[in-house]
Design goal:
This is Transketolase 1. The chain contains 11 helices and 7 strands. Helix 1 crosses helix 3, helix 1 packs antiparallel against helix 11 and helix 3 runs parallel beside helix 4. The radius of gyration is 18 Å and the shape is globular. The two termini are 30 Å apart.
Amino acid sequence: MVYNLTEMSKAIRKRSIDLAFSSGNNAAHLGPGLSLVEIFTALYGYVMKISNDMTNFEDRDRLILSKEHGVLSYYAALEYIELIGENDLDTFMKSHSEFLGHPVMNRAKGIEFTSGSLGMGLSLGIGVSIALKKKKSNSKVYVILGDGECNEGSIWESVMSASMQKLDNLVVIVDRNGYQLGGKIEETLDMGDLREKFKVFGWNSVQCDGHDVNDIISKIKSNQNSDKPFALIANTIKGKGVSFAENNIEWHHSVLTKNLYKQALQDIGVVYE
């Protein structure tokens, strides 16, 4: 299916805000979800091989959301491509829901793996990449990391391992929004030039504007003929599109009241009804 990527990103951002509001006093990770909108738009709207029958489509590309608290836009994207039903997603964070604050594996709905503890997704991605190579599959594995998550030592062990094994079917996208739970990255544990770090460890690595869908797609496509894993450092804004949430650590995880919900919709050009 061919998607209008501009409309897709707008719909995903709006639905992410809706989900945050519907979670009520449970609160939601609004800031981390909004910084990922265009990344999911590029992947699910253009880049990845997907199907409406993900369980039986062996040639599908795999996505691992290692930055698992970015679920708002993850779920919204899967709903947009009709892997998750609207009625199902309306249960987000409700009692007995399948759709929680961290993703739980449900391949029929496009959720390949359960994730919870930060720093584990890339190791998992390496295992999947190796398995696909042994099967002589052309499928790719996409792993989404947070820049704060890159503080984890397990990430860099995985980076070295992937390079040594020449996993050219592995793509890492780092959501570099500059913040983590405790505050600014540079004031917590400054990671410096992430693009250069991946490069030193033997990866192909480039930067992009993480809110420009076409730039994301172009940079991923630029790495078609290589025997190295690929890292895309996506420069993003935490809480992108919502005035009170942009670059505001309070909106890493918070309650979206009705008045703030109305303001958020206004910020993205949607009339509250």
